[in-house]
Structures are given as structure tokens and as C-alpha cells.
């Protein structure tokens, strides 16, 4: 295995558990990957560059399968050792060679029907050629190095074709071959890890949102959330596009597929990494089988593992060096150990420097809201992150306002229903369940209602409580537009005592289920929502069991008091208020 140190280190863990022997090619005798796994008996790890023909051939002679977890290797030598029968190479050398040139990679994707941002080669560095590309692709424009680029070091945005700006961009990119991409007006950056075995079987992990700062990934959150009906089913769409893109490549292993999510819900593929990827590190703690174990399974012809999330919500936070001092890095790890659901990984690098990836923290939680609260604590402890960035990722909840990451939605057709719906908020507060509360009418704001219902699932809502009086169309209409369970609360109107509302909700046609509770009883609606959540979150189920036990104790205490003081005194003292 040729390694770039940190990714190789994380591959050694599942290799040890599976009894897979690894021989590591990397420059240095005590690099991160070599620290965590001994070479097989009678062999030793190789000290050499992963671009060196001599060292690649030495590794190939000792391996049955040679794999890489960095694409900046000598693909020509890999192709030669496989052609000569020295060993099998996965993923295919042709795929690695293709991925190494981002322009050729984009051309391959476009030729195979995969949507990308518009792009074109830059054949010279003359001002007139840059201006011609800007005219063709529009401004702003991204100039990109075709090779040897990562963490934004091969990207230079152009807002204008001013000669000084162009010259500065070209100087930054150096003497590498270049191409240009038209600007993708994305609302989110998205990534999907895809694993493919030798027989072409493909599995993908849930899509994640990736957040970069200074072109370096700082945070990713899983699963992908997006607000708006145009994003309905976006997780599945992103996974499908990533799987389709990987299917155009040869060879087995794990692939990191980066995409842009646009405002209309469409996706553009940005680039593919034929290896474990930073945006998949959360899979170690958050998924049934990690990206690293699945990479080994894929290249060794073992059954692919389950890629599903084991937890409702997860995140990864990169630990970056802030100076040449290791003390801040160690403190970030120490602080993380005090946060529930947080797991720290240090990469064993001997030296710290500014913006160097020194490790990462995985965070898991029973809900998006709890995840963001834990992330806020962790991000606030990173010395190079300002408060504005922390707030953009994990805003602090505000008393009396909707949570930014709710599990339950409370909606009503009019503010006159608010007094009836407030008891539901008290129950959800009691169970510490994040919720939102808003007004949307089935008759007066039908577009708003439809948008709300269609975006409920993609935003992470798991139950909707809808209060409505009179015709009471709101619960049923919302239920017809979402896969999320809807609980209707019949609101007592000025006539018919709310029975008309109750009858309206319970008479939904087959195929459109909508639960309901007693008239004006939003308390029971909230308790039913808690029970729905409890089927997948044990914490809420345990809280519900305690609530029921407390109710039982309350009734038994009342019965005991009634028996001791008699009913006349009980009525006078307990019931008259």
C-alpha cells in the first residue's frame, strides 16, 4: 500500500481486525501508518517515495494486491507492474491516471453524461486567452491546476479579467497545466463516499454536507439536510449520481465524490478521489462499516459492508494546526473527550504547522439539534475559528423561538389556534425535544403549506403536529404531501364544539394516513410525537417510560390522599382552586 500517512493510518485499524497483512510504502521509518501496524512476519515496511519506480516495484513484489490512498502516485509504474504480473493493482492504474488530471477527469465525466460545471482547457497563459475563456464561461471564473492540487492549492478564482488579477492567479498556480471552470452557484457543497468491488457491485454512504474555510474542509455533517421542496429526496439523488459516476471508472475500492448542490435542487459533480476521503472519516464511528474497512473489503473481494448510519446525526470536525506548537492540538483533543458523543483521532504527525491536518473529531448524537449543540462546544474551542463561523455552523438556540434543527414541527392555520397548540410546546420542552412552531393555512397560504410539507423530510422532521378548526383541511393536506407522520389536533371553533374538525381529520381517504387526538388536546399530540421518536431514539423511549411511571405515581398518590382525608375534604382542598 502506498500511503499519504493519515489515511493509511486509519486503514491499518480494520486491517488488523480482519487479519489482513499490510506492507506500507512511505517516506520515513516511523510515519503515521507505520506506527499502528507491524509489517507481516519476515517482511518490513518500505522507506521510499510513492512516486519512486524502484520502491513501487519493491512493494509490488511483496504484495498480492497493491492499493493507494493518495492519487499523486506513479500511475505508469503501477500499470507496468500489473501488466507484468507482479501484483494486482486496485483501483485500476488507468483510473488513477485519469483522476490525476482534473481536466481529463471532467471530460470523462461529461462524455459519460455526468453533469459538471462548464469547463475548458487553458492552452496558454496569455491575457487574451484568459479573456476568451471568461467570455465563453462567464465571470466569476475558477482557474484550476490540472494536476497536483488539493485543499484549494490548485484553485484561483477570477472575479474580473483585470491584468493584475489574472497575473496574480497565474503566479499562484505556478507552472502546472491549467484549465478553467465556470462558476457553480452552489447553495451547499456535498460529498458521497461510494465503494465498488471487483465485480462492479456498488454501495454508497449517506450524502454529507461539507463546509470549507480557506479551501480546507473544516466540517462535514451527515446525513445531508436541505430546506425547500426542491430538495425533496436530495440524499438519494446525490447517492445515485455518485454511484453513476463511479460506475464509469475501472477498479475496486472506495471513492470520494464531491458535488455542488444548486438552488433548484440539481447537482453538479465537482471531482472524484479514488481513495478514502476526508468527508468520509465520520463513518468510523457513525456507520456500521467504515469507509476504510469497505475499501479493504472491496479490493480483497470480500463482501461489501453495510454503509448505513448507526446514529441519527453525525459530524466530523478537522483538527488543524495553528502554529508549530503541538499544545493547542493536544488541548483540542482533551476538550473533545469531555463532550458526549465525541471521538478524537490524532494522526501521529510529529510536527504541527498552521493549517496542517493533525487529526479529526467525530461527533454523534440522537438528533441534529443535539449534534449542533455538541459541535458548538467543540468548534468554540478551536483557536482559529471566529464566532461568526461557529454561529454559521451551530447557532445557539434562542428561548421562545423555533429550533434551527427541529425534530417536530408544530403548525396551525391561524394565530387564533395558538392557545390550543401551546401545551404541545410544553410537553416537547419537558422531553427536551427540538421543535419549530409556525402558521400556515391550507386555504389562505396553500403554496406555503405545500412547500413546508414537501421539505419536512429533507430538513430532518420526524413528526408534524397540525392544529386546525372548522373544515380542518391542514392536517390531511400536509399528510398528502409528506412521508413524515402527521398528527392532527381538532381545534374547537365557535360552533359544533370542534366535532366537525375531528370528523374532517379522521375521514382521510385510504392511502393518506393522518392520526388525530381529542379536541383541543395538543398535549396528547405531542406525547404521540414523542412515542414516534422513541421508536428510533432509545433516549426518548426511556423518557416516555419515566413519564408514564410518574403519571402512575401521581394517580396512586391521589388515591392514597383521597383514602386518608375523605372525599368532602379532598374536593374542598384539592379540586377547588
TrEMBL record:
Gene3D superfamilies: 3.40.50.1970, 3.40.50.20, ATP-grasp fold, A domain, ATP-grasp fold, B domain. Residues 106-300 form the ATP-grasp domain. Pathway: Purine metabolism; IMP biosynthesis via de novo pathway; 5-amino-1-(5-phospho-D-ribosyl)imidazole-4-carboxylate from 5-amino-1-(5-phospho-D-ribosyl)imidazole (carboxylase route): step 1/1. Keywords: ATP-binding, Decarboxylase, Lyase, Nucleotide-binding, Purine biosynthesis. HAMAP family: PurE_classI, PurK. Its EC number is 4.1.1.21. In the C-terminal section; belongs to the AIR carboxylase family. Class I subfamily. The keyword Nucleotide-binding applies. One of its GO terms (molecular function) is ATP binding. PROSITE patterns: ATP_GRASP. InterPro entries: Ade2_fungi/plant, ATP-grasp, ATP-grasp_carboxylate-amine, ATP_grasp_subdomain_1, PreATP-grasp_dom_sf, PurE_ClassI, PurE_dom, PurK. It comes from Trichosporon asahii var. asahii (strain ATCC 90039 / CBS 2479 / JCM 2466 / KCTC 7840 / NBRC 103889/ NCYC 2677 / UAMH 7654). This is Phosphoribosylaminoimidazole carboxylase. The keyword Transport does not apply. Pfam families: AIRC, ATP-grasp, PurK_C, RS_preATP-grasp-like. It catalyses: 5-amino-1-(5-phospho-D-ribosyl)imidazole-4-carboxylate + H(+) = 5-amino-1-(5-phospho-beta-D-ribosyl)imidazole + CO2. GO terms for biological process: 'de novo' IMP biosynthetic process.
